[in-house]
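User: Design a sequence. Structure:
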């Protein structure tokens, strides 16, 4: 009888361990995708008006590109990241202002690269943070963005507790 119980516990324990590993690897994968997006955005002016975040290997895009061709180039760069499972493209076509706020956006994107659920937008030196972040990482992110000396930070983040 004892042997049956032990055999029943082992598969259950393995399932829990597998779930934890998959969860950790999914979070790590999202961080890697976000870091890759940030790197590509730094090197490509077509990303100047684009805001992005990652969840469960799905990339969410919104904002503006100046032309349809520019939007296609952004999509092409994103398609080169092979671990992405899906893309939600809500990018519009419109004027993109290229001014000193672009440098601040690139810096803020770099700070937020570790947080795949966080999207960064900048207008008139005001940094807006939106999306989802673990509660225990919120203060670190806010402090790091504050060190970039924006005019202000608009917090639209939803904090979630790590489980």
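Assistant: Done.
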């Amino acid at each position: 009888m004892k042997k049956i119980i032990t055999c029943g516990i082992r598969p259950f324990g393995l399932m829990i361990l597998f779930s934890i590993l998959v969860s950790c690897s999914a979070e790590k994968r999202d961080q890697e995708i976000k870091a890759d997006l940030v790197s590509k955005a730094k090197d490509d002016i077509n990303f100047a008006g684009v805001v992005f975040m990652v969840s469960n290997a799905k990339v969410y895009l919104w904002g503006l590109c100046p032309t349809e061709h520019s939007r296609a180039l952004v999509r092409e760069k994103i398609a080169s990241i092979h671990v992405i499972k899906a893309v939600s493209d809500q990018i519009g076509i419109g004027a993109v202002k290229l001014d000193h706020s672009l440098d601040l956006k690139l810096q803020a994107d770099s700070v937020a690269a570790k947080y795949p659920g966080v999207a960064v937008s900048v207008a008139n030196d005001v940094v807006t943070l939106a999306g989802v972040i673990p509660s225990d990482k919120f203060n670190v992110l806010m402090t790091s963005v504050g060190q970039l000396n924006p005019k202000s930070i608009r917090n639209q983040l939803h904090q979630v507790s790590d489980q």
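The helical segments are 2-43, 68-79, 101-112, 135-146. Confidence is low (pLDDT under 50) at residues 1-9, 11-22.
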